[in-house]
């Protein structure tokens, strides 16, 4: 999976593309680190370019949420569609994240 | 009563049952008649006039009694009265009848008409009543059957209702759960399971991260160890140099040589420690990496498939609920159909009240015929005293009886008729017997 980063003031935007699976756990850590950064107030993770997501990836997102709570950073998930949307729905992510 | 009327019962009975044999007999008799002399006298003249007046009625009666010709009839000049399309008979327009008319009295013919007609009427009345009774019993039977059918239709509708009720719910642990309830319970359980799956995923990734950090730290330690060994090597070299230099210094360098020896042995110890540490770190590293591999298996077990089953089950539940709704519609149709059927049944039962009307028809018909019958017997009773011996038209009667009998197709009709002919005036016809007895004062009478 490809991750590209955009900085918009105190908001950091991460654009993901490809398949989001366990093997991306290392690169996902950059997002975790940015959440821990004191300059960051909110994080947007964009899924428009993602066509597949597995349960490991969902676990990573839950960790991100945990860190977000710890460091008072708002996490938003954007552009989920198809299989991603289904998985989010089944996992009740609408009650855990801000879905846009 | 002047005349004793001979009645050959045997011939009449046989007329009913047999075919050509008696026909021949009749032919013979009539031939005799035709060949006989024409006697003109009072009785003949009277007979002419009376016959002329009554002949139109006679014509009608013979026509109404049936149209079949005598089976044995070969010669049309014989038995002129049996022709069904016999014309209005007067001596003028039917000269061939002249002889016959001359020899037969109208009164005799009327009297001869009485028994076959009356008997026939009684047969008909009896059979009409039988028919009415048959209709009544059949109608009752049909009514019962229809009630059964209606009841059956209603039972069936109840059964359908039961089926739909059962299909709408399931029995679990002795409790009735509707499909909807079941769907909710199922969804809840599934949501619970999915939550746990996600938690496991999160913990697995979390552990992966921790192990990543651990491996990093181990690598750092290994680096340090490497550096220690490098430094140690250098220390060893230096102490070697120092030993060499102290040897060159002689006595003055003896103290220094001791120090450098100590340094060298320290260095050796450090080396040993370092090597041991390297081993231990290696072991730790291996354990961590092994744990990491195991965790990787856990974390990469993609449970997204299991998560998707919830989707599938949602679709299944919806289909199940839809089916129940469809069943309700079908049941509604079935109930309506059942109601319609019951209605049709009721209408049929009502419609079969034709039986009442039929009974009325029969009753009226029987009454009318009975009235006619009484009239016939009354007239017979009144007329009999006036009929002279030999005047009674036996031939006409036999012929008439045979014609009637040939039209009775059912054997039970034929037999009933035969019995009544025999019993005429004996078992029935109250008016007849009374009037005859009144006229007769103890004389022997042969009653028909």
Q: Which spans of chain B of ≥5 residues are poorly predicted at pLDDT below 50?
A: 1-88, 427-448
Helix content of chain A: 25-40%
Radius of gyration of chain A: 12 Å
Beta strand count of chain B: 2
Structural class of chain A: alpha/beta
Structural class assignment of chain B? mainly alpha
| Widest β-sheet, arrangement of strands of chain B | 1-2
- Given the C-alpha coordinates, what overall shape of chain B results? rod-shaped
**What pair of chains forms the biggest interface?**
A-B, 22 and 27 residues
Strand content of chain B: under 5%
The helix/strand series of chain A, from N terminus to C terminus, equals EEHEHEHE
Relevant terms:
heterodimer, A: 100 residues, alpha/beta, five-stranded mixed β-sheet, 5 strands, 36% strand, B: 448 residues, mainly alpha, two-stranded antiparallel sheet, 12 helices, 2% strand, disordered C terminus
Describe the protein in words.
- The complex is a heterodimer of chains A (100) and B (448).
- Chain A is 37% helix and 36% strand.
- Chain A is built from three helices and five strands; from the N terminus they run ββαβαβαβ.
- The longest helix of chain A is centred in the middle third of the chain and has 16 residues.
- Chain A is globular.
- Chain B has 448 residues and is mainly alpha-helical.
- Chain B is 78% helix and 2% strand.
- The N terminus and C terminus of chain B are likely disordered.
- Chains A and B meet through helix 1, helix 2 and helix 3 of A and helix 6, helix 7 and helix 8 of B.
């Amino acid at each position: 999976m490809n991750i590209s980063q955009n900085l918009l003031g105190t908001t950091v935007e991460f654009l993901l593309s490809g398949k989001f699976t366990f093997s991306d756990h290392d690169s996902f850590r950059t997002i975790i680190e940015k959440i821990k950064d004191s300059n960051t107030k909110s994080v947007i993770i964009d899924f428009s370019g993602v066509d597949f997501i597995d349960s490991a990836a969902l676990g990573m997102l839950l960790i991100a949420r945990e860190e977000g709570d710890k460091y008072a950073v708002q996490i938003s998930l954007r552009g989920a569609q198809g299989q991603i949307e289904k998985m989010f729905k089944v996992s009740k992510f609408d009650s855990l994240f801000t879905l846009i | 009563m002047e005349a004793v009327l001979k009645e050959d019962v045997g011939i009449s009975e046989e007329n009913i049952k047999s075919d050509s044999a008696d026909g021949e007999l009749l032919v013979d008799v009539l031939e005799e008649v035709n060949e006989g002399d024409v006697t003109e006298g009072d009785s003949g003249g009277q007979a002419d006039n009376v016959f002329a007046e009554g002949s139109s009625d006679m014509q009608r009666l013979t026509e109404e009694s049936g149209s079949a010709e005598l089976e044995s009839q070969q010669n049309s000049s014989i038995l002129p009265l049996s022709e069904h399309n016999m014309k209005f008979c007067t001596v003028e327009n039917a000269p061939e009848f002249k002889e016959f008319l001359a020899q037969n009295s109208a009164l005799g013919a009327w009297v001869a008409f009485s028994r076959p007609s009356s008997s026939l009427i009684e047969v008909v009345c009896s059979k009409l009543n039988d028919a009415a009774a048959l209709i009544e019993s059949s109608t009752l039977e049909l009514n019962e059957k229809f009630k059964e059918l209606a009841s059956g239709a209603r039972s069936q509708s109840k059964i359908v209702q039961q089926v739909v009720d059962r299909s709408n719910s399931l029995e679990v642990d002795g409790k009735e759960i509707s499909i909807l309830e079941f769907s909710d319970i199922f969804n809840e359980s599934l949501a619970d399971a999915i939550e746990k799956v996600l938690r496991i995923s999160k913990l697995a990734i979390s552990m992966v991260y921790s192990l990543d950090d651990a491996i990093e730290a181990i690598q750092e330690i290994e680096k340090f160890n490497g550096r220690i060994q490098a430094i140690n090597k250098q220390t060893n070299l230096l102490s070697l140099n120092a030993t060499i230099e102290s040897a060159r210094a002689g006595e003055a360098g003896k103290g220094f040589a001791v120090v450098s020896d100590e340094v060298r042995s320290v260095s050796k110890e450090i080396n040993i420690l370092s090597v041991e540490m390297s081993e231990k770190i290696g072991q730790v590293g291996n354990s961590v990496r092994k744990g990491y591999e195991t965790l990787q298996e856990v974390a990469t077990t993609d449970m997204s498939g299991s998560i998707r089953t919830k989707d599938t089950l949602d679709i299944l539940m919806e289909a199940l609920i839809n089916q129940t709704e469809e069943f309700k519609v079908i049941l509604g149709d079935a109930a309506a159909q059942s109601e319609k059927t019951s209605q049709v049944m009721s209408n049929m039962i009502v419609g079969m009240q034709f039986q009442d009307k039929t009974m009325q028809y029969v009753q009226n018909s029987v009454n009318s015929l009975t009235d006619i019958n009484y009239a016939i017997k009354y007239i017979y009773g009144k007329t009999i005293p006036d009929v002279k011996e030999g005047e009674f038209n036996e031939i006409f009667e036999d012929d008439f009886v045979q014609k009637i009998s040939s039209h009775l197709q059912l054997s039970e009709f034929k037999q009933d008729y035969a019995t009544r002919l025999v019993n005429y005036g004996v078992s029935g016809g109250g008016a007849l017997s009374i009037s005859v007895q009144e006229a007769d004062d103890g004389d022997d009478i042969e009653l028909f």
